TrEMBL record:
Gene Ontology, cellular component aspect: cytosol
Subunit structure: Homodimer.
CDD domains the UniProt entry points to: RPI_A (cd01398)
Keyword Zinc-finger: no
Function: Catalyzes the reversible conversion of ribose-5-phosphate to ribulose 5-phosphate.
Protein name (Swiss-Prot/TrEMBL): Ribose-5-phosphate isomerase A
């Protein structure tokens, strides 16, 4: 089942790529959860590792797992960043942000020598756009920003949580954007980030180096 697939790919990422002495970007979400748990076991077995968390939720989980956290500003670059994705296509273009952590995730993925995505079988798509694209916007004038985003041909919805507007770890809002299909994600990524009020969007273009996913019969696939 899906949870089992998340565990398989998450643990595979840790055991195959995490080496003693590394500094690792720690992803956010239910798949990255298994990576972090496995890293905690490796530390208990004697490995020395440091982590940079992509969200406050991941900071909490990492501390529970005994991973020493450092501030992203203390390092030039990370050895690895390992994170989930909401969808990923054959070009390794990915949509992220389902968990609301896309800004820190993108900063940390950018800072890593190697960026690894761990994804259960449900995440692989022919082309992006099945999953509503999360866009982080500043709260001031967010309705203006939302109207400007809609001009790109999508339906927009301000993300809510428990009946309130969801606020990211950075104090911003998320606009979830439903496109019928995304033909040119590279162009869209640039256009969206040019909109006044947009902080960052969840299109990860030319960023993913390794995809660890599931082939049929629960076989793990590692693609470069
Ligand atoms: O919010 C995010 O970007 C998460 O990584 C998300 O894309 C994957 O979450 P999941 O592993 O819980 O499906």
């Amino acid at each position: 089942d899906r949870q089992n697939e998340k565990a398989l790919v998450g643990e595979a990422a840790a055991t195959q790529f995490v080496k003693d002495g590394m500094t690792i970007g720690l992803g956010t979400g239910s798949t990255a959860y298994y990576v972090i748990k496995k890293m905690g076991e490796m530390i208990k077995a004697g490995m020395t590792l440091k982590g940079v968390a992509t969200s406050k939720a991941t900071e909490k989980l990492a501390i529970e797992c005994g991973i020493q956290l450092i501030d992203i500003n203390e390092v030039e670059e990370l050895d690895l960043a390992i994170d989930g994705a909401d969808e990923i296509d054959a070009n390794f273009y990915a949509t992220k942000g389902g968990g609301g952590a896309l800004l820190r995730e993108k900063i940390i993925a950018n800072a890593a020598k190697t960026f690894i995505v761990v994804a259960d079988g449900s995440k692989k798509v022919q082309s992006l756009g099945k999953f509503p694209l999360p866009i982080e916007v500043v709260p001031f004038g967010y309705k203006q920003t939302e109207r400007a985003i809609r001009k790109f041909g999508c339906k927009t919805e301000i993300r809510e949580k428990d009946g309130e507007i969801f606020v990211t770890d950075n104090g911003n809002y998320i606009v979830d954007c439903s496109f019928s299909s995304i033909q040119n994600p590279t162009q869209l990524q640039q256009d969206l980030n040019n909109i006044v009020g947009v902080v960052e969007n969840g299109l990860f273009i030319d960023m993913v180096d390794v995809l660890i996913s599931i082939k049929e019969h629960k076989e793990i696939s590692v693609e470069y």
